[in-house]
Amino acid sequence: MSKQKSNPQIAAFTLPVSESKSTDTSKLLKKYLFHWPLFILCAVVALIAAFFYIQKTNPVYPILATLEFKSPVSSEGSVTNKNGVDQQLDPIKTPVIVENEIEVMQSKKLMYQVVNDLQLWVSYTHKKTGKSIELYKNSPIDYQFVKANGSIDAKGEKLLITIKNPGTFTLVDDVNGDKDYKFGTTIKSDFGTWLLQPTAYIDSYIGEQIAIKVQDPDLVSDSYQANVKVVLENKDAPFVNLSTSDQIPARGKDILNSLMALYQKDALIDKGKEAQSTLNFITMRLDSIKKGLNVAEGNIEQYKSNQGMTDIISQAQGFRDIKQANIKAQNDVTIQLKIVEGLEKWANSPQNTEKLPATSAYLQDPSLMGLYDKLAALQLQRQQLLATTPETNPLFDPINKQIAILQTAFREKIRTIKSALLSTQGQMKNFDSGIQTSLKKIPDQDRQYTSMKREQESKERIYTFLLEKKEQVALRYASSVSDSEVVDDAHAGKAKWPKPIVIYPLALILGLAAAAGIIYGRESLNEKIMHRKQIEDAVTVPVLGELSYQESSNPIVVTQGRGKFAIGEQFRVLRTNLFHLHGNNDSGRVTLFTSSISGEGKSFVSSNLAVTLAYAQRKTIILEMDLRKPKISGVFDLSPDHAGISDFLSEKITDINKLIQPSGITGLDVLGCGPILSNPSELLEKDTLDLLITKLKESYDDILIDSPPIHLVTDSLIIARVVDASLYMVRQGYTHKDELEFINEINDSNRLPKYSLVFNGIKKENFSYSYGYSYGYGNGYGNAYYNSYSEASKENFGDKVKSFFKRF
């Protein structure tokens, strides 16, 4: 988006073509279509290069092979067999982790062995019809190292020989001269001692040159290793695909077949080594565990003997049963004592007639029971008599005597029984204490026995397990086979490169992209302003108008009426825009013309705009106020020695009429610079400048001031105090992009009134850079618009050729 501010004074005269801007995509397309010859040239060059590339490039063929894993397969990080110990002690039965096997197949070790087995570190090339053909397995000679010194260059050592006959060859040496050798003769070189042997194809290459390239096997194996891909397409299926590519299908097939064969061979060898190592380990462990098992069993036997144990569990149960029986007996004795104590309390009571306690059911002594029953019967008889007879009746005397006698006997019996029960209770407590002591020893005995038994059983289980595993591993080792099987031997497909159907479109795209890149890079590296959009994107100052570049020997390109040049109409548009810029001010308008540096066209624009204003019947004067490097007098063929502005400012001449010169164009006068003084800035700061402009406003409609470049001197900023509007020149292909930042600084400081830009010097051939903003240059509406007002000059053949080459 443009950064240009909206200005109500300029909005009314925005250029017609600018109002109908196309989209950014359309502008970009026009920009690149202008250089269509460059695109065609780059596309043709790219297609020609693609043609020669296809002709000179040897085709590359894809080589494929498939390997199947027959044993249990496990993806990385999982194990098919849940018993980890089984997996470790049975390497033959261990599940194959495919990801690990893929890494093995892609290892440097296997590829290095393949390179040496197939002698891929040496190659033979024969030139035929201008094309180098590699002779794999068809070479007429066989290179053999007698002794290598390990100093092969990283790029390889090259030998060139000419086969003279089946027995001799010539070693081409540009340094020491060619020399003939017999096949089988040892030859010393910087990289080692070697010899050549003829093969069955020697007769077909008599008189031919063969190029031999010897490379470091390490580097060769690295190259082939990087080119071989091993992929597990489906983790649920045990199939692995091997692929590579090679210009020689036979060599690619040999590489994959040899790689698979070496992998299977090494896998069997590794499996055998692991199995034998496992058997040795199991045997060693069996011997060690057997000794430990004997020791553990002896310790158990000795412990049982010392403790008098047969079965600790049965003994513990017996002690527990005895303790329970003793506890029950103690409880019975305690109950008897409670009963006896109750009876003893009754017997010792003073009232002999008290009712007996009802405890006869719990008495175990028969004599005591007899006394109890008699007492109970007498007490019953006494209670029945009390129901009908007073207690003082003599009938109670014999009954009371009998009760007293029986109570005495009852008390004596109770003392005897209580003494016996207390003795029994003490014996039971002593017995219980012994049983309790025996029971307390049992947990410690059990702990020690369990520990020894656990150790013995653990060693026994390990011993049994290792015996079984030894037999399993031995049986599998005797009948072990490879875990993998070749499903598809290596086979070559159709050439995958070069493919014309891919290369030609790609070359065309690259050619067009190169042309676009050239244009973009050329524009990006160009530090000069080339189109209006660059200005609008960078500054906030509005662009008042655009002026095309015009080649002419006369600096005044504006003519009255229908002129020769279209630029005349552009100045008329600028005149109209200037009218709107000044607003309602119709007379005494003061306009300043300045620029960043010299050469941007401020004198050209100010003088031609002055002529345009004069043609519009406006009395105009142009002031040559570049007091250091004046140009206006020369534009109108006036004498530079005539008195001028410097004389008035220095107050040497006070009559302005003596300083003004007619330009030769009706209505246009010129006030020249006058003598060049050493202090122009100080002169411009004087009030005489204000006086000069005030007097000129009384006589002229427009006063145009041609001032020095603002980025070089401060004169223009000093003059700005007396002007109404300021026009700043920017020239296509001349003004540096860095000046745009300076233009913004001037605008931010508000030092120039009604600050606007004029885009000057736009060339027709640079239409592609204008993005459609300008008038009268390029094809389309611009020419049609201005051809109706001016006589367009006809281009000759040379101009057309020059214009065409500018499109590159």
Describe the structure.
This protein has 808 residues and is an alpha/beta fold. It has 4 domains: 36-57 and 498-525, no CATH class; 61-272, no CATH class; 312-478; 532-805, P-loop containing nucleotide triphosphate hydrolases (Rossmann fold), CATH 3.40.50. It is 49% helix and 16% strand. The strands form 5 sheets. It has an 8-stranded mixed β-sheet with strand order 16-23-22-17-21-18-20-19, with helices on both faces. Helix 22 (739-749) links the parallel strand 22 (725-731) and strand 23. The two termini are 29 Å apart.
Going by CATH, the homologous superfamily of the largest domain would be: P-loop containing nucleotide triphosphate hydrolases
Annotated CATH topology of the largest domain: Rossmann fold
CA-atom Rg in angstroms: 62 Å
Kindly give the count of domains.
4
Helix-and-strand structural type: alpha/beta
| CATH architecture label name of the largest domain | 3-Layer(aba) Sandwich
**Gap between N and C termini:** 29 Å
- Tell me the fraction of residues in β-strands, as a range: 15-25%
Determine and state the CATH class of the largest domain: Alpha Beta
Task: Summarize the SSE layout with pairings.
Blueprint: H1 8-11, H2 16-19, H3 24-33, H4 36-56, E1 61-69, E2 73-74, H5 84-89, E3 96-97, H6 98-105, H7 108-118, E4 122-128, E5 131-134, E6 141-148, E7 157-165, E8 168-172, E9 179-182, E10 187-189, E11 192-198, E12 209-214, H8 217-227, E13 229-232, E14 239-246, H9 249-307, H10 312-347, H11 366-386, H12 396-478, E15 484-492, H13 500-525, H14 532-538, E16 543-548, H15 567-582, E17 589-595, H16 602-615, E18 620-624, H17 632-635, H18 645-649, E19 660-662, E20 668-671, H19 680-684, H20 687-697, E21 702-706, H21 715-719, E22 725-731, H22 739-749, E23 755-762, H23 767-770, H24 781-787, H25 797-805
Parallel strand pairs: 2-3, 16-23, 17-21, 17-22, 18-20, 18-21, 22-23
Antiparallel strand pairs: 1-14, 1-15, 4-5, 4-12, 6-11, 7-8, 7-12, 8-9, 10-11, 13-14, 19-20
Helix pairs in contact: 4-13, 7-8, 7-9, 9-12, 10-12, 11-12, 15-16
